[in-house]
Design a protein that fits this description.
Elements: E1 8-9, H1 20-32, H2 43-63, E2 71-74, H3 77-92, E3 98-102, H4 111-120, E4 123-127, H5 137-143, E5 148-154, H6 166-174, E6 180-183, H7 195-198, E7 202-206, E8 217-221, H8 223-228, E9 239-242, E10 247-249, H9 263-279, H10 281-300, E11 305-307, E12 317-322, H11 327-336, E13 339-340, E14 342-344, H12 349-355, E15 360-364
Parallel strand pairs: 1-13, 3-4, 3-5, 5-6, 6-7
Antiparallel strand pairs: 2-8, 7-8, 9-10, 11-12, 12-15, 14-15
The structure holds pyridoxal-5'-phosphate.
Length: about 375
């Protein structure tokens, strides 16, 4: 109950609620397997290592990556993008080079590239969007140049719901030999992902938006790229041998997993993946699309409401503003009814500027939402 009303949780794009099996998996891990991984010969350590590595394989299969060594456990999407910026980016981007993002990026897919550009004297190029919130492929193609070193685009926008044409984005970049990173923070919970079919070079997501625990996520990277990249952080686990004169680094994925990782979180993420696999990602997408169509219709019937983000291909997000009502007031009134929505700029301030609004109200859907109030 929230404010004496049954909770209606419509803030799934910020973070999702956790199935009981995920919560149980965390408790079970700490009660029966808790130990450090890759380090001990004792049975408990081997058990923990097996569970941790099984979770990696679950992520690999979930994304359809070719090999489990292409999966790096990170803290979440933000850390995954920073890892690529600070390793691949630092190694490959130089003065006068360009990185392409889009007008609908989350701050975590803007700021790491800005920091890199500042350090290297490189430039950030931004693909514009139309009034519906759709990625403009023609404009994108025009921005691709011999100076472009990386394209980094959101798969599904957290503020608009737009699902981007990622296969075409990758194809156009690859035709010019440019690698592509996709920010899958939102998409991963709503659409089936196949990194080999999409063809992207990096794919990043956070576990907590996929019904898993906070503090864990994954970076998929093509093995040849990861092999060639320098490590992100130094410390235990990422080394093969250390002397005071010289350190030899470990192979992937360990090269990028310095220090003790979020072992319990990774195991919990694996169980969350089992959970959505049992439901079926296609079923989740179909159900949410039906809810989205219903919500869009009902909101469109309210004259004072203006929907922000009306792309033809979109999922799970209803972002809107209301005439003569500040989004925060709308959010507060809904909260009094036990309805949790997000109000604000959704970590996408340049996108709010594009639509000429300071903030929106955002209802974001998950498979456990219903038409009726339960
Ligand atoms: C599209 C998108 N990218 C990146 C992020 C950052 O994710 P995290 O805070 O889990 O690192 C979010 C979170 O809201 C997001 O929606």
């Amino acid at each position: 109950m929230i404010n004496d009303r049954p909770l209606v949780y419509l803030d799934n794009a910020a973070t999702s609620q956790k199935p009981q099996v995920v919560i149980d998996a965390l408790v079970n891990y700490y009660m029966t397997e808790n130990s450090n991984v890759h380090r001990g010969v004792h049975t408990l350590s081997q058990r923990a290592t097996d569970s941790y590595e099984e979770a990696r394989v679950k992520v690999q299969r979930f994304l359809n990556a070719a090999d489990d060594k292409e999966i790096i456990f990170v803290r979440g999407t933000t850390e995954g993008i920073n890892l690529v910026a600070q390793t691949y980016g630092r190694q490959n981007v130089g003065e006068g080079d360009e990185i392409i993002i889009s007008a609908m990026e989350h701050h975590s897919n803007i700021v790491p590239w800005q920091m890199l550009c500042q350090e290297k004297g490189a430039h950030l190029k931004v693909v514009p969007i139309n009034d519906e919130g759709e990625f403009l492929l023609d404009e994108y193609e025009n921005l691709l140049s011999p100076r472009t070193k990386l394209v980094s685009i959101v798969h599904q926008s957290n503020a608009l719901g737009t699902i981007n044409p990622v296969e075409q984005i990758v194809e156009l970049a690859h035709a010019r030999g440019i690698p592509v990173l996709l920010d899958g923070a939102q998409a991963v919970a709503h659409v089936p992902i196949d990194v080999q079919r999409i063809g992207c070079d990096f794919y990043v997501f956070s576990g907590h938006k996929l019904y898993g625990p906070t503090g864990v996520g994954a970076l998929y990277g093509r093995a040849d790229l990861l092999d060639a990249m320098p490590p992100y952080q130094g410390g235990g686990e990422m080394i093969r041998s250390v002397t005071f004169e010289k350190t030899l680094y470990n192979v992937i994925p360990n090269k990028f997993e310095a220090g003790t990782q979020n072992i319990a979180g990774s195991v919990g993420l694996g169980v969350a993946i089992d959970y959505v696999n049992n439901l079926g990602m296609d079923n989740i997408a179909a159900y949410e699309n039906e809810l989205l169509a219903y919500g869009t219709k009902r909101l469109s019937e309210i004259e004072a409401v203006r929907l922000i983000g009306t792309a033809r291909h979109k999922g799970s997000i209803l972002s809107f503003v209301m005439e003569n009502a500040h989004p925060h007031d709308v959010g507060t009134i809904l909260d009094a009814e036990g309805i949790a929505v997000r109000t604000g700029h959704h970590c996408a301030q340049p996108l709010m500027d594009r639509f000429g609004v300071p903030a929106t109200v955002r209802a974001s859907l998950a498979f456990y939402n219903t038409r009726e109030r339960n």
